[in-house]
Write a structure and sequence with these properties.
mainly beta; Jelly Rolls
Length: 142
């Protein structure tokens, strides 16, 4: 099967599939971080700073500590994606810089105190603005 380049172009787009190689012939061929057979979010990183690559809103209890985590893997060895958690528009902790080794799923996490908040808009934000590379896979299952 030939890769479908149009699903990840231009920069900043994402698609969902079972292997990065299905979307570009220069991307690694590997499966998701759980069974190896499931879907993953494939992100073509953007050159613009602070672009959100994933977001969701969740209900939270006020005055509670939370730990958020995600799984990511590089799909191309050049200039791996650098991701940071953002909650309600505020970046948390230092960005997680993925290794250049492709297909190496790694979990990263950040802590957050809810204060008076009852809703958290949780986002993963791209911190790498390189033109070439800057792409990743994100887990779409637990």
């Amino acid at each position: 099967m030939l890769p479908n380049y149009s699903l990840l172009w231009p920069e900043g787009l994402f698609s969902v599939g079972t292997s990065p190689a299905l979307f570009h012939d220069l991307r690694a061929d590997f499966g998701d971080h759980t069974t190896g057979q499931g879907n993953m979010r494939l992100v073509n990183g953007n050159r613009n700073p602070d672009v959100v690559v994933w977001t969701t809103g969740v209900d939270v209890t006020p005055d509670t500590y939370y730990d958020f985590s995600a799984w990511a893997a590089s799909v191309h060895p050049r200039s791996p994606l650098s991701l940071a958690f953002s909650i309600n528009g505020v970046l948390l902790d230092a960005p997680f810089v993925q290794p250049s080794t492709t297909a190496l799923w790694q979990q990263f996490a950040a802590g957050w105190y809810s204060g008076l908040n009852t809703i958290a808009v949780l986002s993963l934000v791209n911190q790498n603005t390189a033109w070439n590379g800057n792409d990743c896979a994100l887990a779409t299952s637990p």
